[in-house]
């Protein structure tokens, strides 16, 4: 345990698995009180158990970021439980089945945009709404190297949502740095989580594919993404405003 975030309260959405879980654990190791949020209580409780076992402090909160009333209640609950909201990490991303633009079902389009873009906006709306009246804070959004930095055929809906998330991050950063709220983003490429696996792909097949497709020769580790998030949220990054760190092993170099 270290003390970089001691006395601070951190909200991590999408904190039940993968990158979100790694982020929650990393903040707890550095002294923060962490609230992990998501739609499924089971994975959230698993994250809390891991934090507690490591000597950290965490609680779980069930919320759907596409529902304004649930996001508002989430932020209010964090503040009621811990007295503050100092850092928020918005880590929500959903995929839909691949399809060319003209063939995307309308429901799939709305599913992606509701979660990846509108959900991000709603999260920042209520996070900033609290922070700007209580001494400021830091927000880090988890975007993707797919979008503003790279496109892949048949993944246009996802890439569009994440490109918009990158612009939304920068716009919010400009709008609210005067309120004492610093907003930045990380944009991972392939990371060693279930989200980067193809249907029916074995671990060996995935490793071979990553070795072929990623200049660094491997997928990223969730902990590497978490380290970048903690940097952007820390006092050491006080001059980073509207920054987007692309962490993809050279894919978009």
From TrEMBL:
Renumbered to this chain, region (Disordered) spans 188-218
User: Could you tell me one molecular function GO term of this UniProt entry?
Assistant: oxidoreductase activity
UniProt keywords, alphabetically: Oxidoreductase
Question: Which segments show compositional bias classed as Basic and acidic residues?
Answer: 203-212
- The yes or no answer to whether the keyword DNA damage is present is no
The family annotation for this protein states: Belongs to the short-chain dehydrogenases/reductases (SDR) family.
What is the official name of this protein in its record? Dehydrogenase
Q: What species is this protein from?
A: Streptomyces cinnamoneus (Streptoverticillium cinnamoneum)
Higher taxonomy: Bacteria, Bacillati, Actinomycetota, Actinomycetes, Kitasatosporales
